[in-house]
Specification:
By secondary structure, the chain is α+β, with helices and mostly antiparallel strands. The strands form 3 sheets. Strands 1-2-4-3 form a 4-stranded antiparallel β-sheet, with helices on one face. Helix 2 crosses helix 6, helix 4 packs antiparallel against helix 7 and helix 7 packs across helix 8. The two termini are 29 Å apart.
Length: 244
């Protein structure tokens, strides 16, 4: 399936567990696996991703399995202590000295998905968002994960790390914060806690400005996935949410 980005396998060798990640077929048309490999190595060095054994430009990765770990659920991010830890993790990533490969161009991403699966209402929203959105200056772009949804946050007794770096790039930090807030359906109170823990409450307006773009990218991806035959129940909701 085109939109199944990866398959992961747990392996055991010499008394230690590993995760082998194999990219889905066709995803190289939308994901730069070479950039992902370079960015992941930088993220590991910054201490925000699990230990990596080997990463290839093909997208194949071998990493150390994180014992006693689990992916977070959106409701976990409504716990102030967890939200604060994730905010600190993102701030650590955004302030690391790495220069990630690639830069997010949300409207270009939307165009690629709409070329696969035209959708008149999403095309109309795309034009509206473009008319009201100013591009992010290059100097404001920082290393970003690109998709820090709850499922990509892995918690263990040793802390929280980010996995699945295929959309990582240079972007405005508000993008990561907006993705997190929307995925977890954070209300105003928890958003304030997130930005306060992150340490930059002044980003409230930038996060709000990023949300329509995040919704639009998610909706265009979901619409293309539906057109490709996916039956995941959440996809239709993502398409409908674009106009909110």
């Amino acid at each position: 399936m085109l939109f199944r980005s990866n398959r992961s396998f747990r392996l055991r060798a010499r008394g230690r567990d590993y995760v082998l990640r194999v990219p889905g077929p066709g995803t190289e048309r939308f994901i730069s696996r070479a950039a992902e490999a370079a960015n992941l190595a930088a993220a590991v060095a910054a201490g925000v991703a699990p230990p990596l054994v080997r990463s290839y430009a093909s997208g194949v990765q071998l990493s150390v399995f994180v014992d006693e770990s689990r992916a977070l659920a959106p409701e976990d991010l409504r716990q102030p202590a967890v939200l604060a830890e994730v905010a600190f993790l993102l701030r650590r990533l955004h302030e690391c000295e790495a220069a990630f490969q690639g830069a997010i161009e949300p409207l270009a991403v939307v165009d690629r998905y709409l070329a696969l699966a035209p959708h008149p209402e999403l095309a109309r929203l795309r034009r509206a968002v473009e008319a009201s959105t100013a591009p992010t200056p290059a100097e404001e772009r920082r290393p970003c994960h690109g998709d820090p949804v709850a499922a990509n946050l892995l918690a263990s007794p040793r802390g929280i790390v980010l996995i699945d770096w295929e959309y990582s790039c240079m972007a405005e930090p508000a993008w990561d914060l907006a993705v997190l807030a929307l995925d977890a359906e954070l209300g105003p109170t928890h958003e304030r806690l997130l930005l306060a823990a992150y340490g930059r409450p002044e980003l409230v307006e930038r996060v709000e400005a990023a949300k329509p773009l995040v919704r639009l990218v998610s909706a265009a991806w979901a619409n293309a996935a539906l057109a490709a035959g996916s039956t995941a129940p959440r996809l239709s909701a993502l398409v409908a949410a674009a106009g909110t």
